[in-house]
Amino acid sequence: MRRFFLVLILFLLVAACEQKIPKDTETESALEVDIRNKTLTSSSDPAKGKTVYYANCTSCHNYNPKKPGSVGPDVYGSSKELLTNKILYGKYPENYQAKRTSGIMPLLPHLNQQISNIHAFLNLPLK
Ligand code: HEC
Q: Looking at ligand 1, which atom is closest to the CA of residue 99?
């Protein structure tokens, strides 16, 4: 009987000392993080685009992008090329007939990762 308990205690000791070593698969590699961030930022999600548009554009453009805003024109249906040019460089695509030539719109380069989302929102099918 005593022997049985000795063996049992030994077994429990060994079991208690066993350490769980984290496997490689449990830690996220830098590449995986990078891919995750990319899919987060370069998506074309109209819901995200709406939030970004409401927060950054509606001081001048209309909440309804089909209508002209207080300062800026209607922007519904804008192409990605137009949005990129206007938001990042303050320019228009070649041969594009600008709706207004006031030159008031500021550059918003911090939104460079959001252009696909804004584009998705501004090109939602007509209701
Ligand atoms: C401070 C006011 C202001 C803000 C903020 C602003 N815009 Fe504008 N936007 C204008 C004005 C004014 C024009 C007309 C041309 C000009 O003055 O540059 C314009 C023109 C445009 C055009 C070109 C329309 C055309 O077809 O000629 C697009 C596209 C556009 N804005 C998109 C946006 C988006 C998207 C945002 C937000 C990320 C934004 N603007 C933020 C004022 C603004």
A: 27
Q: Quick check: 37 pLDDT over 60?
A: no
Q: Which domain holds residue 63?
A: 40-96+103-122
77 CA from centroid of ligand 1 (Å): 13
Is 77:123 a contact under the CB 8 Å cutoff?
yes
**Helix axes of 115-122 and 46-56: crossing angle, nearest 10 degrees:** 100
Give me the CATH number covering residue 89: 1.10.760.10
Share of the chain above pLDDT 70, in %: 69
What burial letters (b/e) apply to 5-37, b meaning 16+ CB within 10 Å?
A: eeeeeeeeeeeeeeeeeeeeeeeeeeeeeeeee
Classify residue 24: in a domain, yes or no.
no
Whether ligand 1 lies within 6 angstroms of the CB of 73 is answered as yes
- Domains contained in the chain, number: 1
Residue 91 beta carbon below 6 angstroms from any ligand 1 atom: no
Q: Identify the band that residue 6 occupies on the pLDDT scale cut at 50, 70 and 90.
A: confident
